Protein 1
Amino acid sequence: MSSDLPACGVRICGTGSYVPERRMTNEDFARTLDTSDEWIVQRTGIRERRICDPSREGTFEMARTALERALDSARMKGSDLDLIIVGTVTGEMTCPSVAARVGAAVGAVPAAAFDVSAACCGFMYGLNIAQGLIRAGMFRTIAVIGAENMSSIVDYDDRSVSILFGDAAGAAILQRDRDPRIGCLYQSMGADGSGWHSLYLPRKPRDVPPFDADNPIRLGNIRMNGKEVFRFAVTKFREVLEEAMKRTDLTADSVGQIICHQSNLRIIDAARERLGLPQEKVYINIDKYGNTSAGSVGLCLDELWRAGKIERERPFVMVAFGGGLTWASSVWRV
């Protein structure tokens, strides 16, 4: 690869998303679990979430539809893509990747394709990787998708975890641009694997640490220590967002939208208040969709993009954190 490549920018050409039609409300949980709408809303901000119909849709179908809508938004065809990256922990198969199947479905062959496993940070990791590959001259046009069928890995007999998650997919098309002033202004990614057991998905008995051996949640379903994850998220979310704004000289007045991973409304509000950000600049849709893991940030981006709320004059910030434990940020100018 030449070190004399001309400087370039990275343009977001279009976005897309998909959520299943089926709604699961807090009242639905109250019929089978010891909980209530008031209890769930007070602790999470969630009122309902979308759930896949397993007879006809899953991670692959959601990812494909989100990408098709992003391609339509960008006025492109699948054959225009050089690479597809899918962030997910709920792929139907380890091999082939969701990305490879989606590429074939939209006519993107022979575009490269791979999945990223970074839990709730999957879309953000993919986005940061993609823009770096474009700036390095390796690829021209890349599709990034975050897609999760969380209902397939949730034990609905457990109150502590099942109420949190929903299913969704979000996608964005990135392309090399001659204007070096647009695109990613700053990015960060990190992980602390020592906290893996705070949020994990055990498949076999040997995956379960001794201190969690009595956990009633069935194998093959996600387990979470809510207090530990909440403590990590409140601290790390604020730190990562604060650092991103500091490194790009953004203030509460100069920043456009803040797109946060939708994990818990209390976590988002705590960071917003700490940084003095007005409510209208911190996008919220957790009340409608719950925590959709890697689908979360991409879904928010698409809703804001289509509503015309991503301003050219003001950079916007994306932040995520999740299992791993992982975190990521990305500041963009369009």
Protein 2
Amino acid sequence: MRTLGNILWHIPFLGFVSAFITFVIGILLTVTVIAAPVGVGLIEYSKFLLAPFGKVMVSKNDLNIERNSVWKAYSTVIMIIYFPFGLIFAIISIFQIVGMAITIVGIPVAIVMAKSLGTTLNPVNKKCVSVAIVDEMQRRKAAEAIDSGRY
């Protein structure tokens, strides 16, 4: 089913074009160095757009990825500066999701856009991972909750 969703995303809706444009914008922002955290997030988002029905965007904090403390502080500052732009992009995306969900043919695009709404709002410190990794993370958190009696 994921393969069919990815095919529908790419063939009639030109999802690869969205992925390419996002990748180029991410590269341009990364080259400026000042907006590098947003650029890196957009590059990860472009990976998601290549296979949106088999991937998920996850915060690096959830993945327990070690990061440099200076980069983490700088990313937080950039995230705060980017927030008004991300809010505008997220509101525009919500209108697009509603418009696409009305039509039967547009439902796959609406699903992809709804899955990526959090990344549209804030692409900083996000990582594109497989659905299997997210399932395993949720399984481990559930087992941890059961073991500690927090269920």
